[in-house]
Amino acid sequence: MKTFNKSIFLAALVFLGGQALAADQAAILGTWVATLSAQGQSVSIELEIQKGSNGLEATMAGPRGANSLGEFKFDGNEVSFKSPRTGSTVTLDYIDDELRGSFSGPQGSRPLAFKKAQ
Fold first, then answer.
1. Is residue 19 over pLDDT 70?
2. What is the reported pLDDT for 118?
3. DSSP 3-state percent helix, strand, coil across the chain (nearest 5)
4. Which among 37, 61, 89, 112 is least buried, having the fewest CB atoms inside 10 angstroms?
5. Which of 89, 99, 96, 7 is nearest to 49 (CA)?
């Protein structure tokens, strides 16, 4: 009888853990917008995160067009991906319904904060 109860408990934990992961992913799905200031000009950047066939997928669009993001990962409070333009890894923290971090480019590191588009 104890083994049966343990099996039910473990199955419930696995199910609930999967539900929590899905809820976390659902929180970041959609379109995010950031404004990046460089050389006295403001540039709008759009990050679109969606469910793909192999997990989450993302596309980033700016003044020079849109690019799919490689190595996109989300662990519950951190988003990371490889920038197609610079090849550098970008890491953003998911805090208070924002994605905050920094972007490294030719002019150095710049703060980057995405807010969910309405």
1. no
2. 65
3. 25, 55, 20
4. 37
5. 99
* Helix, coil or strand: residue 9: helix
Place of tokens 């997928």: 57
Amino acid at 9: F
Phi, psi (5° rounding) for residue 104? -100, 125
- Quick check: 51 pLDDT over 80? yes
Tell me the pTM. 0.73
Paired tokens of 23: 């809820």
List the strands of the sheet with 65-68, edge to edge: 65-68, 55-62, 41-52, 30-38, 108-116, 98-105, 89-95, 78-82, 70-74
In this predicted model, what pLDDT tens digit does every residue of 71-113 receive, in sequence order?
A: 899 988 899 988 777 777 888 999 988 999 987 766 677 788 9
| Distance (Å, whole) CA 33 – CA 39 | 20
- What average pLDDT score do residues 38-59 get? 89
- φ, ψ of residue 52 in degrees (nearest 5): -120, -175
Here the tokens at position 18 are 């999967």
Rounded CA separation 105/58 (Å): 19
The first and second tokens of residue 91, run together, are: 């890491």
